[in-house]
Specification:
By secondary structure, the protein is of the alpha+beta class. It has a domain at 2-68: 2-Layer Sandwich (Alpha-Beta Plaits). 48% of the residues lie in helices and 14% in strands. It has a three-stranded antiparallel beta sheet, with helices on one face. The radius of gyration is 26 Å and the shape is elongated.
Length: 106
């Protein structure tokens, strides 16, 4: 078995494996549960899709063709937010605190 694709998540690996299965290339996923064992830190490229050596060239071609038609990710600009000052937060907290204290003791 040869590794034909290294995925960042198990979802990506299953997507590629299903793409290959549609073309009658059978493979399997290795390391599917390893990212969960690492803990909160995301492990990089521990999930792999493997196929037999005879299917490697065809699988690699299918994956390369699929990756070529994928759009490049774009970074959307975030809307500009008005910077809040600490004084505003303090004042709001103070007023809420006074109101709650008044409500409790009266």
């Amino acid at each position: 078995m040869k590794s034909v694709f290294e995925a960042s998540t198990a979802l990506d690996a299953h997507m590629i494996l299903n793409l290959l299965t549609q073309e009658d290339i059978h493979g399997q996923i290795e390391g599917e549960y390893l990212p969960g064992g690492v803990g909160d830190l995301q492990a990089i490229n521990v999930v792999r899709v493997v196929v037999t050596a005879g299917d490697y060239a065809a699988a690699k071609t299918i994956i390369d063709d699929w990756e070529a038609i994928q759009p490049e990710p774009t970074l959307a600009e975030k809307p500009a937010l008005r910077p809040s000052t600490g004084a505003e937060k303090f004042f709001i907290g103070f007023v809420v605190g006074v109101a709650i204290t008044y409500w409790i003791y009266h």
